[in-house]
Amino acid sequence: MAVRISKTLLVASIGLLAAVIVLNNLTDYNVNFDYIQHVLSMDTVLLDSQLTWRAIAAPRLQQIAYLAIIATEAAIAVLCLGGAVRLGQTLGSSGTTFNRAKATATYGLTLAFLFWFVGFMVVGGEWFTMWQSADWNGQQPAFRFIGCVGFVLLYLSLSDGDLEVC
Predict the structure, then answer these.
(1) What is the pTM of this model?
(2) What stretches pass through the bilayer (predicted)?
(3) Cα–Cα distance, 146 to 150 (Å, whole number)
């Protein structure tokens, strides 16, 4: 039972993280939007960069990108928190039932991993060369999120048989 409770709480923790990020992005919209504007416009990358043709300077497109980011974070929160509830409902069930209940949480964690890896490391970090910016480089925070989410996803994916190890 301890391992199942642990998995449930860790999934809920990722959901809580995403929910707080959504709250922060909505309540401090302009400050967080500044980050997106600088990354997309590539206005703080190295001056001799040959990649600035990729920049998105249109404020409307930047707004759409930011809203898509917030919507994705909200989806992560809903899936992970909903997945944790579902896991909590099956804590005392058979291993097969508990394993089946992991689907929603797995979708949420996978979306979170893809969001922070593809969104911030691939698109932000490499496509928009965020790594070149001294002020607007979010790769380290994204990497921390990827590590936490990846750990929880791997841990959750371990089979939960009817025998409890701990």
Answers:
(1) 0.90
(2) 7-23, 65-85, 105-129, 141-158
(3) 6
Q: How far apart are CA 26 and CA 82, in angstroms?
A: 21
- Alpha carbon distance 125, 153 (integer Å): 23
Residue with tokens 């043709």: 53
What pLDDT does 160 receive? 75
92: which DSSP letter? T
Q: Please, are residues 22 and 37 in contact by the beta-carbon 8 Å criterion? A: no
Half-sphere exposure of 69 (CA within 13 A, CB side): 26
Mean pLDDT, consecutive 10-residue segments, the chain of 166 residues? 95 98 96 93 91 95 97 98 97 91 97 96 93 88 94 92 49
Q: What are phi and psi of 47, to 5 degrees?
A: -60, -35
Sign of the C-alpha dihedral computed for residues 20, 26, 32 and 33 taken in this order:
positive
Distances from the Cα of 65 to the Cαs of 21, 69, 89, 137, 166, in angstroms?
Answer: 16, 6, 36, 17, 45
**109, two tokens:** 């964690």
11 backbone dihedrals φ, ψ, rounded to 5°:
-65, -45
